[in-house]
Design goal:
The chain is an alpha/beta fold. Helix content is 44%, strand content 13%. The chain contains 19 helices and 14 strands. The strands form 2 sheets. It has a 7-stranded parallel beta sheet, with helices on both faces. α5 packs across α6, α6 packs parallel to α8 and α10 packs parallel to α14. The longest helix has 17 residues. The protein is globular, with a radius of gyration of 24 Å.
Length: 458
């Protein structure tokens, strides 16, 4: 018997579906992928979409999809031919996920968390097991899977203090959802403690799947060839978020990057000369911001060369990495990376990827999304932490001018990356063990018909 609170939650998510559709229409203006197969989000599927008894993997966005790719590859290695049902919540996640599909796999949108949409999703696909990546736990889906005895697990799980506080404020929803999960495999001990406090059944602390990713060898080879032709060392602001690009440009302007280079005075080179001796590059985290960032660079008085405009960027003050799936190339080119998401209070971005490419990292103060990885990286000597963007630029310049220190950090980064592998093998084995023991059933209850709340997308 469902609680009154869960039924009220289901009534609320059903009532706000028109607002969800409006939001999707607005998002589709900038990202057309949001206009694709909209009805899937509400549990209505094309007759050509088939698949039952698959291993369902949900990866909401781009970062989770890349982690899912590592897990899926290991699942296929341990259980060849395993059929995968892959769901997403964002257009970039879906686009990246399409690259993972093989014969017998299925890809659809994550259903909006209403009783009707969730029931139609589970009726249609009847997954053998559901694997949620990292953070995505929805109350209705968790309850419905528990009722049908479909094991729903949380892999590569993380939960920072901010998210825990938010979950505790909605404890009447969060606690039943987390306690309904069949198993949770946390990234770190701190994540495990926070998840347990919400009622999750933490079955292991397996580390971060992203350590098991191997950088694209072709991109690294291309980076080596291109670096031989670069006249200057490169510093890249990687996976930057809104506000951080302006921070970097403001610092470079204050240091004289847009002014004529003054002559050197004796043995001391001016800061402007040191800045001019570096090729600066910005790689925004979200592709919908590529044009916006290009316009920002030009508005601040810099010349910009876009990766998308030529295979090899032309001479320019700022290069813009406006392509998807080429982070290994960018890290391979960089002598130093400034960690995006860490200079605004956003929790940082993935610093495991630059480590795997042997790229030294300078991070800002905000890394709560990757707290343990950041601490381990600092302890290993693979990264530096600073308080603001000006200090980051200064630290990067010092590293550029100190090849011995930079080489030592690059070696430490590779060692840090390789020493933390193994999460994929452990997680895949645990998923398969639960899936093979599962005995899902289909409930006989008729799901709430919420189709009347779902007008056709214009």
């Amino acid at each position: 018997m469902r609680s009154l609170l869960l039924r009220l939650y289901g009534a609320f998510t059903t009532a706000v579906q028109p607002l969800v559709r409006r939001k999707l229409r607005r998002r589709a203006v900038a990202e057309p992928g949001y206009a694709v197969a909209v009805e899937e989000r509400f549990g209505h599927y094309d007759d050509a979409i088939t698949g039952e008894g698959q291993c369902w993997v949900h990866a909401v966005s781009l970062g989770e999809t890349r982690a899912a790719a590592i897990l899926i590859a290991e699942l296929r290695r341990q259980y060849p031919g395993i059929p995968i049902l892959l769901t997403h919540g964002t257009a970039t996640g879906r686009e990246e996920g399409a690259k993972l599909l093989e014969s017998g796999d299925t890809q659809v949108w994550q259903p909006w968390d209403t009783p009707g949409a969730v029931a139609r999703f589970l009726d249609r696909f009847q997954p053998r097991i559901g694997v949620l990546m990292e953070t995505e736990v929805w109350p209705e889906m968790a309850a419905a899977c528990a009722e049908r005895r479909i094991p729903l697990v949380l892999a590569n799980a993380r939960l920072n203090e901010k998210s825990l506080a938010a979950a505790e404020r909605l404890g009447w929803l969060a606690r039943p959802a987390y306690s309904a999960l069949a198993a949770v495999w946390a990234q770190t001990e701190a994540d495990a403690h926070r998840l347990v406090s919400l009622g999750a059944k933490v079955a292991g602390i397996y580390g971060n799947l992203k350590f098991d990713a191997s950088p694209d060898a072709r991109q690294l080879t291309a980076a080596v060839a291109l670096r031989e032709r670069l006249p200057r060392p490169m510093v890249v602001l990687a996976s930057s978020r809104d506000g951080e690009e302006r921070m970097l440009l403001d610092v470079l302007k204050r240091f004289g990057a847009t002014s004529p280079v003054p002559p050197e005075q004796g043995a001391v080179r001016s800061i402007a000369k040191r800045v001019h001796d570096v090729q600066w590059m910005i790689v925004p985290r979200h592709p919908q911001r590529f044009d916006e960032v290009a316009a920002l660079i030009e508005s601040q008085g810099f010349a910009v060369a876009r990766r998308s405009a030529a295979g090899e960027p032309a001479e320019a003050e700022i290069w813009l990495g406006d392509s998807l799936g080429e982070m290994a190339l960018y890290y391979g080119l960089a002598d130093v990376a400034l960690l995006g998401g860490s200079f605004e209070p956003l929790g940082g971005q993935n610093l495991i990827e630059p480590a795997a490419c042997g790229c030294p990292v300078v991070m800002g103060p905000s890394t709560f999304n990757f707290a343990e990885a950041a601490q381990l990286s600092l302890a290993a000597g693979a990264s530096l932490r600073v308080e603001n963007m000006e200090q980051a630029v200064t630290a990067a310049l010092k590293l550029v001018e100190n090849p011995e220190r930079r080489a030592a950090m690059a070696e430490a980064a590779l060692a840090f990356s390789s020493s933390n592998r193994g999460a994929a093998e452990r997680t895949a084995a645990a998923v398969l063990a639960i899936a093979q023991a599962a005995d899902p059933v289909v409930t006989e209850s008729v799901p709430l018909d919420d189709s009347r709340a779902e007008p056709t997308l214009e």
